[in-house]
Amino acid sequence: MDVRAHVSVIFHLDKCIGCHTCSVACKNVWTDRPGAEYMWWNNVETKPGTGFPTHWENQKTFNGGWKWNGNGNLEMRCQNKADAFLKLFYNPNQPNLDDYYEPFTYKYEDLFTAKAGDDQPTAIPVSLITGEPMEIKAGPNWDDDLSGSPIYAENDLNLDKLTEEERAQLFEVERLTMFYLPRICNHCANPTCVAACPSGAIYKRGEDGIVLINQEKCRGWRACVAACPYKKIYYNWKTGKSEKCILCFPRLETGQPPACFHSCVGRIRYLGVILYDADRVPDAMKVHDRALVESQRTTILDPHDPAVVAAARKNGISEEFIESAQKSPVFQYVMKWKLALPLHIEYRTMPLLFYVPPLLPVMGKSANGTYEHSADGFFTSLAESRLPIKYLASLFSAGNEQIVEAVMKKLMAVRHYKRWQSVRDMAESDVQKILREAQTTPAEVEEIYAMTAIPTQFQRYVLPPLQREEAIQSTCSPEACKGCSGFSLNPTVMGERA
Ligand code: SF4
Ligand code: SF4
User: Fold this and answer.
1) What was the pLDDT predicted at 488?
2) For 358-365, what is the mean pLDDT?
3) Which of the listed residues 9, 19, 141, 178 should we mutate to test ligand 2's pocket, taking the one with most ligand atoms within 8 A of CB?
4) Ligand 1 pocket by C-beta < 6 Å: which residues?
5) Strands 125-127 and 3-12, how do they pair?
6) Are 142 and 101 in contact (CB under 8 A)?
7) Of 59, 152, 437, 483, which has the fewest CB atoms closer than 10 Å, so is most exposed?
8) Which residue has the CA at smallest separation from atom 3 of ligand 2?
9) pLDDT tens, position by position, 138-155
């Protein structure tokens, strides 16, 4: 067991109100400068929708992530040993500016300098790249709230798993629904961006696993842009270097949560340390799609297990880090309650950002002023869910519907139990049945409720003590050194390197 510590995060999608405050906070802190105008290290998408950059989930076009052929190593989709060199000069998998959008501003000075006339002056849009007037055709949240639109929602690739009938039902007006999907870099445990970089400029920090790009070493080849299946690396056209979310490590190192977390209006974001077994990482993603979520869970270790704690200490992980892992909300959501799932785990990069899938559409169905009961004891059955389970499974469990169903049942059980406590509109025996079906207990429901509805800032953000110099000493030592620059990014862990 090779225990490593990693800062990991949860986004609780039931709580996201789609206000984009997170995106704007990040923009103002990190990408409000020339060459970075089109970058949104944090963006919020409306689902169903095509996202940003548009159709980023279409790996037939972008070829991001790893592929596994059923045996042998993982292989990068975007390049191999034979063509990696040629793709430095022409890479057909790169997104272009149209896939993002041409950044723009408005000619505000015209409002003040226009000559007096019969019409109000207007501020026309101008390109932030050329300075010329332009017609705005896209933006980072162009499909915002356009859940029903034929251009955006209906072209969501995750809908391909639905039958024609299910698709038609989804887009019926009374059933029409949507949710928000905030996205940042997943700081993956097995990131293709790191493996693809020909200059070795991208690395995971040893002490907390944050994925960073060394701007001194980056030569702007953009192999990482193609390799990241989440399209969370951006090329700065002014500096000629690639850039990405840095999980606000300068803030973390001074005891503050990242800017997007700090500003989140819905308080959907949680941050904490997890301990994981680096020895398990090489093989964890070499399983069939349906088994990927469970396989990733086997890499995450119980920070309360004395054997894990002893192995962590032996690896030089500090007591403070171990204590952070024991209080981590991420461990609770992912491992204890099994409510949080990775986004598109079938890309096999082992994302360490987890999402609690949205339940709200399921519970939003009411009749005569109260929630409807259904035959199976739930107010609204999963089969009647406004967002088909198949769709959510395509996003959060590589198509394994049982995993999403288990999450939904537990989320519903929490709501029924808490509603019963205050409204008493169900028989207690019915509520007990719901809890049993969801394989949960009143005690667990109370824990989930407390962490979901009324957590303090210090419960949501359990920050490790990150004084970087001390932290590096705590995870690296000459005895433990594997020549990994602080993290086990050897070819075995990374799969087949180009
Ligand atoms: Fe790299 Fe994963 Fe972040 Fe993409 S999401 S940039 S693959 S760490
Ligand atoms: Fe959602 Fe929070 Fe971002 Fe608002 S600030 S869009 S609630 S993640």
Assistant:
1) 35
2) 64
3) 19
4) 185-188, 191-193, 211, 228, 230, 232-233, 244, 349
5) unpaired
6) yes
7) 483
8) 22
9) 888 888 876 557 778 888
| 321 φ/ψ angles, rounded to the nearest 5 degrees | -65, -45
Q: Whose CA is nearest to atom 4 of ligand 1?
A: 228
Instruction: State both tokens at 264.
Output: 């989140």
From the CA of 224, which ligand is nearest? Answer: 1
Protein residue closest via CA to atom 2 of ligand 2: 264
Q: Which ligand sits closest to the CA of 460?
A: 2
Find the 367 Cα to ligand 1 centroid distance in Å.
44
Tokens standing for residue 426: 């169900």
Confidence class for position 87, pLDDT limits 50, 70, 90: confident
Alpha-carbon distance values, 109 to 121, 132, 162, 434 (Å):
10, 15, 50, 62
pTM of the model: 0.90
- Higher-pLDDT residue of 287 and 377 is 287
Phi-psi region of 243 (alpha: psi -120 to 50; beta: other; left: phi over 0): beta
Coil, strand or helix at 66: strand
Residue 261 is encoded by which pair of tokens? 């977390």
Angle formed at CA 334 by CA 141 and CA 290, multiple of 5 degrees: 80
Which residue has better confidence, 199 or 466?
A: 199
What's the 349 CA to ligand 1 centre distance in angstroms? Answer: 8
Residues 6+ apart with CB under 8 A from 288: 70
Residue with the smallest CA separation from ligand 2 atom 5 is 264
Spatial CB neighbours of 428, under 8 Å, sequence gap ≥ 6? 420
